[in-house]
Design a protein that fits this description.
alpha/beta; Rossmann fold; six-stranded mixed sheet; two-stranded antiparallel sheet
Length: 315
């Protein structure tokens, strides 16, 4: 069984996510974590397929001979969401505190040592994601990294994927909703982002991450505490109850200045839209360039009360 938290210094052994039930019978489906060499095949990437379960091979590779089965099930889109105990939540908090003074590279190295190959990373190719990818290339480039391809991303964002692959040898996988954008809009009488942007984000992003999450124990994100009031309290290591994963944010205590200094110093590829006033980049229909003096995320869902896509909120 894979530990969901490394043993803290001074402890006699690892804190295991040991109250998960074990299921010996495997169900169908492939798992990107089953192949620690490269994740899904190119055919899988193009099809936008996602794993339905953890394969027996992946479980064995991670150190156990059976599949972890979640201890709680909510709805169809949030099935197999695991629930930690109070003791485990406390252990996550202690580990997060222990890493507060660590460099991002040290945090990533800890995450790899603790969870790989059941560690994954989601990136929208923001500056923070590109910095983490540059670090990951040196620490463990075989970590499965994916992008939630909504069908509405800027062309510049898609081009950056190729630049990252060329520079670091990490091919970020596209994971998508099974329903193509044209069909999705036809089924809903037009663009859903115009009438219900929360639902659009949920359908095109959140549900997809739920499916990918089934194959993993932990995921990394590029959020920073100084990005918004909502993210100000983000831990370095915490429990993501929405996706049933340990969530690791290596750049949580970095600032925007820290990120761009690293990009400049190491000539890390970044989205060219940043040079045109786009400080935070999401889907093209819901993103604009910011004006002088505006908040970093003011260009996202401008004119509405919406500030998050739902990936980094608890509900």
């Amino acid at each position: 069984m894979t530990p969901l938290l490394a043993c803290e210094q001074g402890q006699s052994g690892p804190v295991l996510f040991g109250r998960l039930r074990i299921r010996d019978q495997m169900t169908g489906g492939s798992d990107p974590s089953a192949n620690s060499e490269a994740g899904p095949s190119d055919a899988t990437r193009l099809a936008g397929a996602v794993p339905a379960t953890v394969s027996q091979g992946a479980a064995a590779q991670a150190g156990g001979g059976a599949q972890l089965t979640p201890s709680a099930t909510t709805d169809a889109n949030r099935s197999e969401v695991r629930t930690p105990t109070a003791e485990e939540l406390d252990a996550f908090a202690r580990q997060s505190l222990a890493l507060e003074g660590a460099a991002p590279e040290e945090i990533i190295a800890w995450a790899v040592k603790t969870y790989f190959p059941k560690l994954t990373m989601a990136t929208a190719f923001g500056p923070e994601g590109c910095v983490i990818l540059s670090m990951l290339a040196k620490i463990q480039p075989k970590v499965y990294v994916f992008n939630l391809e909504t069908g509405y991303q800027f062309q510049e964002t898609l081009q950056l994927r190729d630049q990252i692959a060329q520079r670091y040898g990490i091919v970020v996988d596209y994971q998508s909703n099974e329903t193509p954008v044209a069909e999705y809009e036809a089924l809903n009488g037009g663009p859903v982002y115009k009438t219900d942007p929360d639902r659009c984000c949920y359908d095109r992003k959140v549900t997809v991450l739920h499916r990918v999450a089934r194959g993993y124990d932990a995921w990394m994100s590029g959020i920073r505490r100084d990005q918004s009031p909502h993210r100000a309290g983000a831990p370095i290591v915490g429990w993501d109850k929405k996706f049933g994963l340990v969530k690791i944010s290596p750049l949580a205590n970095w600032t925007k200045k820290d990120v761009w200094k690293r990009i400049t110093d190491e000539q890390i590829p970044y989205n060219s839209l940043h040079d045109k006033g786009y400080t935070s980049i999401g889907c093209w229909p819901c993103t604009r360039a910011v004006l002088f003096g505006e908040d970093e995320r003011a260009g996202r869902w401008s004119g509405s009360a919406k500030t998050e896509c739902g990936l980094h909120t608890s509900e």
